[in-house]
Amino acid sequence: MTSLHALSPKAVSAPGKVFLAGGYLVLDRKYTALVFGLDARIHVCIEPIRTNSGVTLSEIIVRSPQFKEATWEYGYRLTEHDGGIGVTQLRASHDLPLTRNPFIETTLTYALTYISSNLPHHLIRPSSISIVASSSYYSNRGTAPSPTSKFQAFNIPLHSAHKTGLGSSAALVTSFTAALLTYYLPKEVFDLENEESLRILHNLSQASHCAAQGKVGSGFDIASAVYGSCLYRRFSPSVLSSAPDPGSPAFATELKSLVEDASRWDTQIQKSAIRMPQGLRLLMCDVDCGSETPGMVKKVLAWREENPETAEAIWDELQAGNEALAAELTRLATADVQNGDVAEKYARLREIVKANRSLIRKMSVESGVPIEPPQQTALLDACSGVPGVIGGVVPGAGGYDAIVVLIEDKESVINGLKKLLAGWKVDSSADDGVKIGKVGVLGVREEMVGVRVQDPADYKEWIDV
Ligand SMILES: Nc1ncnc2c1ncn2[C@@H]1O[C@H](COP(=O)(O)OP(=O)(O)O)[C@@H](O)[C@H]1O
Ligand SMILES: C[C@@](O)(CCOP(=O)(O)OP(=O)(O)O)CC(=O)O
């Protein structure tokens, strides 16, 4: 094997998501989801390995320098029978426990395998990879290492970090895959400016994310990490449920075919179908109380199977409401409606959000799953009463952990919400006995752009620590 051209540092970032409409529905290809990308991003910087001391020939070191003890070292080798690149975690030091990061390990295995099948006669050279995330992915308090720093250091290990639910694993898998492909493959083969490369990135990231999660979800979070805000129709679950296992004979050839063969994928991603009108924005609020998405999904789907008629009526009505929401946002974004009475301008939008919420509550009550539980109803009603707030919903699977509000993009509106939330208490007398904790405004908003190339120099202070 010969070694490739001189490799220079590369950096990439991918956005987190907020699932505005279509939770549960999107699991069925008949229905679609409205997903917004966020300005909270996960950045991955990759460069040739810096030191030769103690580094064996085929080694990739991954670090997440904002967290304590977050270094993962991997040895890699080409396996026999076309099984792809096998990745083995190495012990960074005898004093440290071996903590695994399945998202990194799996993504590395899939991406290196794909790279090696595109460069069969080249050696994959060792590299050093750093991950840096926007602070809003975690609700822990961090400190900025310098006054100009855009990121914060959290003085805790990653497993103690409290996630805010912006889709860290999907943004990580996408930017990690994109960084590896951009770094190792020549620009003629992979280039993030090119639609075909985005399609490859999407398919490969979906495969890695599913394998790391151990389940096939709808994939909306990878779609928005790659493409940014979009209207999303999922791929058929069979596309990935029959995917080959890493290391099995012919894994490399089958993965290449799965990723590249457009006829195997029936995903539909429409970027032009969703817009955010000028003068409006989304605002996320983190509720200090968790919900387990997989358990809720299981229950909702079981109820739907037992009650097909009732479910179908709700699903169809909600799909129509979600389409109306996308259409109204687009109308407001494109038509000449900038002037005029604000209350009148947003009246229809307000009605649509309200009607969709009542259908989500119906879904909750009928299925017995707390998608919009009474505590969130009270919170959303109160937020909707703040001047300048159009309305709000429980995003994605719903539950107790977050709300998203659509508001007029004015400081006074955010201040009004902050004032309301600062004093927000939910009594424990709700029937389910669940007491939600503090509600905080997350400093994130929608962003239309998906994965993008970054300047590696921007991460210098994190790579040199
Ligand atoms: N900054 C980071 N560095 C390394 N790995 C990360 C980072 N943030 C998230 N991850 C990985 O993603 C996992 C969280 O994924 P998941 O539980 O699916 O949450 P989410 O809903 O945010 O995607 C973590 O356990 C870790 O493996
Ligand atoms: C129920 C769903 O349709 C949407 C879940 O959306 P969330 O945004 O709640 O997801 P997590 O980040 O995994 O908690 C499941 C799916 O589409 O896979």
What this model shows, in words?
The chain has 465 residues and is of the alpha+beta class. The protein has 2 domains: 2-272 and 453-463, 2-Layer Sandwich (Ribosomal Protein S5, domain 2), CATH 3.30.230; 280-447, GHMP kinase, C-terminal domain (Alpha-Beta Plaits), CATH 3.30.70. The protein is built from 13 helices and 16 strands. The protein has helices at residues 102-118, 168-184, 195-213, 220-227, 238-241, 251-260, 293-306, 308-334, 342-345, 347-367, 374-384, 411-422, 460-463, and strands spanning 2-3, 10-21, 33-48, 59-63, 71-78, 85-90, 122-123, 127-133, 230-233, 268-270, 280-287, 389-393, 402-408, 439-442, 446-447, 452-454. Strands 2, 3, 4, 5, 6, 8, 9, 10, 15 and 16 form a 10-stranded mixed β-sheet that branches. The longest helix is centred in the last third of the chain and has 27 residues, at 308-334. Bound molecules: adenosine-5'-diphosphate (ADP) and the ligand C[C@@](O)(CCOP(=O)(O)OP(=O)(O)O)CC(=O)O. Adenosine-5'-diphosphate is lined by residues 64, 101, 103, 131, 133, 158, 163, 165, 167-170, 172.
Task: List the helices and strands in order.
Answer: EEEEEEHEEHHHEHHEEHHHHHEEHEEEH
Please compute the radius of gyration using only Cα atoms. Answer: 23 Å
Global structural class: alpha+beta
Give the ligands present.
Answer: adenosine-5'-diphosphate, ligand DP6
**What share of the residues does DSSP label as strand, in percent?**
15-25%
Number of domains: 2
Helix content: 25-40%
Number of strands: 16
Number of helices: 13
Given this structure, which CATH class of the largest domain is correct? Answer: Alpha Beta
CATH architecture of the largest domain: 2-Layer Sandwich
Categorize the overall geometry. globular
Keywords: Kinase, Transferase
Organism: Lindgomyces ingoldianus
Protein name: Phosphomevalonate kinase
